[in-house]
Design a protein that fits this description.
single chain; alpha+beta; Alpha-Beta Plaits; 6 helices; binds uracil
């Protein structure tokens, strides 16, 4: 594999950024500075460093973004700012968001080039929990909580799958669903005569939104987090 491709695939930067690092002498292969982006390297064997830091080749990248409001969940758009534009310094060429959050929704969004894992995480058959903090226009009644838990008619062929709904002391709702239908949470609240005025995704499977990750910030998943996500979709499939 070419040296510039390895660096870009490992998330060190875009292809043009990593070429620049290489030309400036910031990249070494087995301890020797290499100034040729086209240099062939053996990804599992050669020791590549950028600015003295070892670069670990990874076929797949996983990023956890705290999506802010006002940004759209898309890979490109002629007018609006996209979530990919927030991953500064990352080679986003093959990354896609796993599912979507509305423009006015904030919270945890996973981005990856691991299409197989993304597909499994999104399939309702794998029962991956997504927990949302929901602020509503009016108070949520006990009957509404029960209806949300049992499943409501949101105008689709089938009612929503069973969910967990819990009221916090401040009146906000914690709603955990295992599907990801279009505008699902907003439509569920509408089905019980209410309206969502603020929505934030707090968790996705075993991943939770880190408290110290501000809106607009992102970080790579740790190896442990990646393993837990794979575990989230390795169990029994039903439905
Ligand atoms: N449900 C919604 O209605 N919107 C989101 O962004 C996510 C879930």
């Amino acid at each position: 594999m070419r040296l510039d491709k390895l660096l870009a695939d490992a998330g060190t930067g875009t292809r043009s950024q990593v070429k620049e690092y290489i030309r400036k002498g910031q990249v070494s292969v087995n301890g020797e500075i290499c100034r040729k982006p086209e240099q062939k390297v053996r990804e599992e064997i050669d020791q590549v460093c950028c600015n003295g830091q070892p670069v670990r080749y990874a076929r797949y990248q996983y990023y956890l973004l705290h999506k802010p409001q006002g940004v759209i969940t898309a890979t490109e758009d002629p007018r609006e700012k996209t979530v990919l534009e927030l991953l500064s310094g990352v080679n986003t060429a093959h990354l896609s968001p796993v599912g979507r959050l509305d423009k006015d929704t904030e919270g945890l969004l996973l981005l990856t080039n691991d299409g197989e894992l993304a597909h499994r995480l999104l399939s309702p058959r794998h029962h991956v929990d997504k927990c949302y903090l929901v602020r509503t226009a009016g108070p949520v009644s006990v009957q509404a909580l029960q209806a949300l838990e049992q499943g409501v008619d949101i105008g689709d062929e089938k009612p929503t799958m069973p969910a967990k709904a819990r009221l916090k002391e401040d009146g906000d709702l914690l709603l955990t669903i295992q599907e990801g239908r279009y505008h699902q949470v907003k439509r569920m609240l509408k089905a019980v005569g209410n309206e969502v005025i603020y929505l934030k995704r707090l968790s996705f499977g075993s991943l939770t939104l880190p408290e110290d990750l501000k809106a607009g910030e992102f970080r790579a998943l740790t190896a442990e987090e990646q393993e837990k996500l794979r575990h989230d979709v390795s169990g029994n499939i039903t439905g």
